[in-house]
Design goal:
Elements: H1 14-22, E1 25-28, H2 35-47, H3 63-68, H4 70-79, H5 85-88, E2 94-100, E3 103-110, H6 117-123, E4 126-130, H7 139-153, E5 158-164, H8 168-176, E6 180-187, H9 189-194, E7 203-211
Antiparallel strand pairs: 1-2, 2-3, 3-4, 5-7, 6-7
Bound molecules: coenzyme A.
Length: 217
């Protein structure tokens, strides 16, 4: 199946328009054509012990299994957005990959329904991560901007986004995308464990809202 293409115009003149298309950064539905760069990125996430950013461990994959069964992994990821999950899990999860010039850069996850106590309190509507070897190049800021467009297309009016208090890059990304601070909450031990965190120190979660009123569709 072909991936969904959402190319945003970045330039205005006809000459530079071609450059804009060639350089396009977009969010794509996971697809097998991105296999090589995705596995490269997953290997990079695994090296910093953050493979869970890709959802691979959650779906039962390590990097070796990803190599062997990539098509099945892509299928499993796409199934997370199936509406049948509303009954079984209380929410759907739309996963998109950030693609730059054909290369996998990172992913975001959009949960239109905050259908569990965890999501409504700590998780929020959107999660994102950029592969370690592509950070500090503006991709984090861009992925949230594109994810907000996607939320608007899904019919959402405002989104809840959360981050750890000490996650400076993520705070910058949320605030520069219009995030309005609502409150800070201390994550209790049970929640930290459910997230797989090993640290025993308290973690402050910051909650922000972004209104989508003037977004493009
Ligand atoms: C958070 C994350 C997505 C940032 O991605 P990124 O591509 O490096 O972000 P950007 O390049 O767009 O940088 C955003 C801002 O953070 C700053 N920044 C990035 N990395 C930083 C660092 N290590 N220390 C301090 N500031 C940093 C940038 O300078 C930029 O600031 P500016 O707005 O003043 O220009 C990335 O570090 C990541 O994937 N982390 C792991 C997963 C995660 O924490 N996800 C967020 C969950 S809420």
């Amino acid at each position: 199946m072909c991936p969904r293409r959402q190319v945003l115009p970045q330039v205005t003149s006809p000459e530079s328009a071609l450059v804009g298309v060639l350089d396009a950064i977009s969010l794509e539905t996971p697809a097998e054509i991105f296999r090589e760069s995705f596995i490269d990125g997953a290997t990079s996430f695994a090296a910093e012990k953050r493979l869970e950013s890709t959802y691979a461990p959650f779906l039962g994959y390590d990097v070796h299994r990803l190599r062997r069964e990539f098509g099945t992994f892509v299928w499993d990821l796409r199934q997370l957005a199936d509406s049948s999950r509303l009954h079984s899990s209380g929410y759907r999860d739309h996963v998109y990959w950030l693609i730059d010039d054909g290369e996998y850069i990172g992913q975001c996850s959009i949960r239109p329904e905050l259908g569990t106590p965890y999501l409504i309190t700590y998780g929020g509507h959107i999660g994102y991560s950029i592969r370690p070897d592509r950070r500090r190049q503006g991709y984090g800021r861009r992925i949230l901007d594109l994810a907000l467009d996607e939320c608007y297309s899904l019919g959402m009016e405002r989104v809840l986004i959360t981050c750890d208090e000490d996650n400076q890059p993520s705070r910058r990304i949320i605030e520069s995308n219009g995030g309005q601070f609502e409150s800070g909450l201390t994550m209790d031990r049970a929640v930290r464990r459910a997230e797989g965190r090993k640290s025993d120190t308290d973690i402050q979660k910051l909650r922000y809202w972004i209104e989508l009123g003037d977004r493009r569709r």
